[in-house]
What we know:
The structure is a single chain. This protein is α+β, with helices and mostly antiparallel strands and 291 residues long. It is 38% helix and 17% strand. The chain has helices at 39-51, 65-80, 99-105, 113-127, 136-145, 149-155, 196-199, 203-215, 233-251, 255-262; strands at residues 2-8, 14-21, 30-35, 167-173, 176-184, 189-191, 194-195, 222-229. β2 (14-21) and β3 form a beta hairpin. α2 (65-80) runs parallel beside α4 (113-127) and α8 packs parallel to α9.
Amino acid sequence: MFTGQVWKARAGLTLRVFARQLTGGKPRTIEPVFHYGSDSVIERDMQLEKLRLIPPSPTVFARNPYHEDVMERLLDMMNKYASLPYSKKNSEKSVWLSFEDYKRKGNGAKCKQAEYNKLKQTLVRLDSIDPQLRSPDLEEVLDFFKVSKTVRDVEKKIKELDSKGRAVATGGRKDSSAKVYVVEGEGQILVNGLPFDEKFKNLKDRTRILQPLQIVESETKYNIFALSRGGGSTGQADAVRLAIARALVIHNPLFEDILLKAGCLYRDPRSVERKKPGKLKARKSPTWVKR
């Protein structure tokens, strides 16, 4: 009794291979027996093999062939130049294609944001290689995905004064939001139609509102009309402060570096104070019992 498998070749060839003979003690190998087909069948299959269309790339059946080809080339370069020294400082000033521009280069390829992030991560790693050790083909690939800073600066929308000479800006803090209109004037500040010293009774809130003006020494050069809503007085004061700082930059872009260093152009990301261990809430302590 024998056990085995049967394969049928393209040209009508039948191959029967027996693995072992289970009788007679030790198993032994049986030589395969070949039965060839006719010459016409073999010739036909050879002609079909010549006429068979071979895809230009193995990724032709992938969901996104363009992106797969790009990543395959980049990963090959990663493996090729993995031993070269690199530093993250070499790629800090590089500006890469945006997600929309990358899809446009791929003729509307079906690319996901996660795939683009992986591509950008690979490009940053290749760009961090020492420029003196880069090969011409690596430079060519990196330049294909880079965008000149002049083009990016032109695309960046620059805020300007409106037709009435006002700088309009918004700000926020927690649940509070504010919108301000800043024009050149004598230094008057109105919040929701009231002088800001009447709207904000707390001296600390008024000081925070005036901080951007004091930093650029322009307390008596601009009139400010602000609209604030939501949250408490401190949140509204911080929202107005941020909006005023942004409006001052619209009037004079040279103020941007000064206000950035002072922290006036950053929105406070804190929303709700966290609960602490041993407390009932953020600051509330449990009732103290003597015994």
